[in-house]
């Protein structure tokens, strides 16, 4: 007997199933994740053409020749040297690769920073998804990480690449550790260790990873004192100790700590400053306004810190008490631990730096703070559905407001990192008038001078002198600015002050000798040149100035000797070629004169070119 065919589904039911499948495909989390990455790329696009700043950026390319000459030898040097008083071989290598392909083109430098940030968004999504099993939470955390204004510094500042690089490898280590816990495959714990090492090679802050692994063990219900867990963590802790020692072995780092210690603060002050630092990051997480690249240490009013430092201590201790009270809630401990463990290493318990906190330090630690309110909302949704449903529209409105506010803030904050003047102006505007701000005024003065805005530069140097009158470099720089606007008397006064404060700098005497020569003080000129050469026997400007004095005295033999000495020390010193050519013309040695004029012309000295065309063609 023929079997009866099963009845076919109604067309309407099939259409509904197809529509549901299509809707599910449209709402696939990968599309949301791609949208987040596109949004973040868009809001950071105005940072891609920022300048190389004198705020550390230039040091990598001007102070370390190996960064501009990529080779196997230089790669070895990246792993055996310190750069800008830090051990960070992988970020420095990435700068060298940037320079090898595009030299000082700033677009690729910024683009690499942005790519690391976008990659970190993807990795955070993967990490949170593995950790919580909740795709919605993972997407929201990835979004908040991508657009939080506190992260601008780690992305838009070229020198802060180490923050996003260490986080990249740090997240990979965490992801593979979670995979290890799930699958118990040896390759995953090996990959965890490999990515941990790469993170350590990017920035010292990665040393916190072993403690974070224990936090994950606790959250996922492992026995922390079991033999297996202890044996797993020993290699990680040993690596942390090793890289901690490597970091502290840098003599420049120790010198920076020793010389920069802010001894005006007592142990009690330091306690309140540390509490304030924690609260600062918590406050900026909720309301990231008035952000700055430098937050100076607070000036004291007599023996007291500003009132907010004492208030912050009360608030921080209260928050710690609340965390302790919630110690049985693993979600609270996870979130608090993610934040506190990774931010604590950046708290200045020895106030030896010129800034108390930094935006980039919150780059990874905020992950814990992104998670905490989401866990709370889910808990409320499950336990108090009526309450949740009642306030759900307000919650969505608040979320949309934050997204819009964060997005706008990132775009605006990127503008502060565009160039030296915008950055230093931001620092000056947002900090109290303390010694460090004198440096900001001084550096902005230098930036103005590069643009030939000498009066603006002089104004900034004057402000710097008011804040820090014992800084010889500021007087010297202002003297140069006066020299460029031909105010020789003011220039001489500033060089005199610079020499009085810092008598061991040859450049001060070199510049002052030129002023004295223009003021016809020949004895003073000779005295300054001799002092300059005592300090720096290869100062070519002093040899040239002495040659000018000799020429004015018609001591042509000595004049020739000084110019020849200058060229011995700097064979491409075009001014010396031009001046010696003039000397040879005076001595009727036209062939020698033309030879020197030609050498100067080949070095693109405009006067030498004119003299060669006038006398030698």
Please describe the structure with a list of short key phrases separated by commas or semicolons:
mainly alpha; about 625 residues; about 0% strand; 30 helices; elongated
Structural description of this entry:
72% of the residues lie in helices and 0% in strands. It has helices at 11-26, 29-43, 57-62, 72-78, 89-102, 106-132, 135-147, 152-156, 161-183, 186-200, 209-219, 227-248, 251-260, 267-286, 307-325, 330-344, 366-383, 385-416, 420-429, 435-450, 454-467, 472-484, 488-501, 506-518, 522-535, 540-552, 556-569, 574-586, 590-602, 606-615. Helix 16 runs antiparallel to helix 17 (366-383) and helix 26 runs antiparallel to helix 27 (556-569). The termini are far apart.
The count of helical stretches stands at 30
Radius of gyration, in Å, reads 32 Å
Share in helix: over 70%
H/E element order = HHHHHHHHHHHHHHHHHHHHHHHHHHHHHH
Helix- and strand-based class?
Answer: mainly alpha
Total number of beta strands: 0
Largest sheet: none
What is the typical, i.e. mean, pLDDT?
90
Which range does the strand content fall in? Answer: under 5%
Low-confidence spans: pLDDT under 50, at least 5 residues?
none
First-residue to last-residue Cα separation? 117 Å
* Silhouette: elongated
